[in-house]
């Protein structure tokens, strides 16, 4: 509550006066070292909560399968299939490398100060990003890239299904029950 008041008009002065009454001196002056964004108005707990909710919505509500099927219909030329699948697989790998790096971020958040595991150069860049976004940035990026990875997975599945439907001779089990069951769960 105090943090929000401090960010409001005359809030800084009011907060300084209250802190002064309990013996804490906070000199007046601008502390803003970065551009103001909507995230600036959030305290860390709110930003982290927003990122968590955004991640949940990306995970549960992003229509990865529908989007993948729609986009695949735009690229249904059989001559493009192998190249397109390779592009999807390569993109999925690059996204995995990116999220693997972000999952190693040990930026301080609130009172937690985790032990860094990344090289200091990259960790300081990630910490700066985390501080600027009040803890929202990295989890939000991870959520968005995870939604992209889910899309890529569904696009690859849809391509495989399209390939199987266009090439009925590619079934190695010649339509046995096991093959039907596999097809049902694609």
Automatic annotation (TrEMBL):
Presence of the UniProt keyword Ubl conjugation in the record: no
Start and end residues of each stretch annotated as Disordered: 166-186
Keyword line: DNA-binding, Nucleus, Transcription, Transcription regulation
Ranges of residues in domain Transcription factor AP-2 C-terminal: 4-155
GO molecular function, one term: DNA-binding transcription factor activity, RNA polymerase II-specific
GO biological process, one term: regulation of cell population proliferation
InterPro entries linked to this entry: TF_AP2, TF_AP2_C
Segments of skewed composition (Polar residues): 166-175
Cellular component, GO annotation: nucleus
Principal location class: nucleus
Annotated localization: Nucleus
Similarity section: Belongs to the AP-2 family.
Name of this protein: Transcription factor AP-2 C-terminal domain-containing protein
